[in-house]
Design goal:
about 350 residues; alpha/beta; Aspartate Aminotransferase, domain 1; Aspartate Aminotransferase, domain 2; four-stranded antiparallel β-sheet; 14 helices; globular; binds pyridoxal-5'-phosphate
Length: about 350
């Protein structure tokens, strides 16, 4: 038995999802003629109270298009030092949009309205024009941490006062919604644009969606084409997304419970130095100084458990819908019996 905790992107489509894909009505989406893509876009737009939505092959492309539609070359984007848009998109913000990044020294990937205010450049020709604030919920590098909605409201106010666009990288937004019992519309009303991954906890093989106003999405469609992201009979993938929204949202609770359970076992283990707080499906922890993190990963691998080493002694487990209760029993036994 392989227990793959490397990421929530390792899931394979369920039988029900494959059936939905098999039965999808499709057309050439570049001609706006794929009814299933349109249905998915409409479904998410309505859910979040936004005017329009656009389907993307990846979350990276959705974020990169959002950055480009909000900025001009030479502008500045404000985000956390751990942000995916800065760290894990190949330097795309600089390449695709020619923007510089002002990095906030946040807490587990989150920051305050005051910190945003301090980052905004004065209206002076020496400085790049601050144009965009990007927030990530849940935070990836921050271990699946969830934002406080009130702080986001304050940041929105700062954005309005300073004419800054406000983008949410919501790759795992549904994890936050489930964990904090919040409603999609509460996010829809705060942000200009929101990107959402269908291929993370929701269990689709590919797909992300960008939400925004009609005007923003019209612009996004042109930029997606420019980036080579136009897709043809992609309704097969959109059908997976519709199925996931109907069947895989509430069950995220199970992933969160599994993560919490394993974090408690790790915390009680002699070989562990520290376990970061768990709010959703990600567990970040550190082994004792006497134990090399790479050795730890390899030892678990020999027992069929795959986890990620993030460097500097930081280790990560991500829980998802392919982790069965039987796997959980086996994993608990392995961690309890582990010795060094
Ligand atoms: C996964 C992820 C993305 C998008 O990544 P892709 O692999 O391109 O789908 C964006 N932001 C965050 C925070 C992520 O975790």
């Amino acid at each position: 038995m392989i227990i793959n905790l490397l990421s929530d992107t390792v899931t394979k489509p369920t039988k029900g999802m494959l059936e939905a894909m098999f039965n999808a009505q499709v057309g050439d989406d570049v001609f706006n003629a794929d009814p299933t893509v349109n249905e998915l876009q409409e479904k998410l737009a309505v859910l979040f109270g936004k005017e329009a939505a656009l389907f993307f092959p990846s979350g990276t492309m959705a974020n990169q298009v959002a950055i480009k539609l909000h900025t001009q070359p030479g502008d500045q984007m404000i985000c956390d030092k751990w942000a995916h848009v800065y760290n894990f998109e190949g330097g795309g913000a600089a390449v695709n949009s020619g923007v510089t990044s002002a990095l906030i020294d946040g807490d587990r990937g989150m920051f305050t309205a005051e910190q945003v205010q301090q980052m905004i450049n004065p209206d002076d020709i020496h400085y790049a024009t601050s144009r965009l604030v990007c927030v990530e919920n849940t935070t990836n590098k921050g271990g699946g941490a969830c934002w406080d909605l009130n702080e986001l409201k304050k940041i929105m106010q700062v954005c309005i006062e300073n004419k800054l666009a406000f983008h949410l990288d919501g790759a795992r937004l549904f994890n936050a919604l489930v964990a904090k019992n919040e409603q999609p519309k509460q996010y829809g009303e705060l942000f200009d644009t929101i990107s959402i991954c269908l291929s993370k906890g929701l269990g689709c093989p590919i797909g992300s969606v960008l939400l925004g106003s009609k005007e923003h999405i019209k612009k996004a469609l042109r930029i997606r084409k420019l980036f080579g992201g136009g897709m043809r009979q992609v309704g097969y993938m959109a059908a997976a997304g519709i199925y996931a929204l109907d069947n895989h949202v509430e069950r995220l609770e199970t992933d969160h419970e599994n993560a919490t359970k394993i974090a408690a076992i790790l915390k009680a283990s002699l070989y562990i130095k520290k376990v970061e707080p768990v709010e959703t499906n990600i567990v970040i922890f550190y082994t004792n100084d006497t134990i090399n993190d790479v050795d730890f990963v390899n030892k678990l691998k020999t027992k069929g458990v795959l986890i990620t080493s993030m460097g500097q002694g930081k280790l990560r487990m991500v829980f998802h819908l392919d982790i069965t209760s039987q796997m959980m029993d086996v994993l608990e036994d392995i961690l309890i019996d582990l010795t060094f």
